[in-house]
């Protein structure tokens, strides 16, 4: 099993090899595939091959590459996550 540093290195290598433009398009495609997997689950279709989890994983990997490609720091992400989670908590209390 790879640690976070090894994963990030592999993702960075992919960006270097294939370029930001192509990897950005791949990320958009992976998000679309996740949307399709969610739609199938909402329609009650079985998921014997664990497709939803696989598509979620693809998007998580893409998020790592997007952070690398566009220079988004962990701190910046955490700040947004905190803001959005606080907003959601307020909505939950309403």
Separate helix tally: 4
Main sheet characteristics = none
Q: Estimate percent helicity.
A: over 70%
Overall residue-averaged pLDDT value = 96
The low-confidence parts are: none
Annotated CATH architecture: Orthogonal Bundle
Strand content: under 5%
Instruction: Give the CATH class.
Output: Mainly Alpha
Structural class: mainly alpha
Distance between the termini: 43 Å
Find the count of extended strands (DSSP E, 2+ residues). 0
Output the helix-strand order.
HHHH
Approximate shape:
globular
Radius of gyration: 16 Å
Number of domains: 1
CATH domain fold name:
Helix Hairpins
Structural summary, described in words:
83% of the residues lie in helices and 0% in strands. The protein has 94 residues and is mainly α. It has one domain (4-93): Helix Hairpins. The longest helix is centred in the N-terminal third of the chain and has 23 residues, at 20-42.
List the helices and strands and how they pair.
Blueprint: H1 4-18, H2 20-42, H3 51-70, H4 74-93
Kindly summarize this structure in a few lines:
The chain is mainly α and 94 residues long.
Search tags:
single chain, 94 residues, mainly alpha, Helix Hairpins, 4 helices, 0% strand, globular
């Amino acid at each position: 099993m790879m640690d976070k540093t090894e994963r990030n290195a592999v993702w960075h290598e992919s960006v270097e090899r294939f370029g930001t433009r192509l990897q950005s398009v791949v990320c958009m495609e992976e998000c679309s595939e996740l949307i399709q997997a969610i739609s199938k689950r909402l329609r009650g279709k079985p998921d014997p091959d664990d497709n939803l989890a696989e598509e979620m994983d693809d998007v998580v990997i893409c998020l790592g590459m997007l952070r690398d490609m566009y220079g988004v720091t962990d701190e910046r992400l955490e700040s947004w996550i905190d803001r959005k989670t606080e907003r959601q908590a307020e909505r939950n209390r309403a």
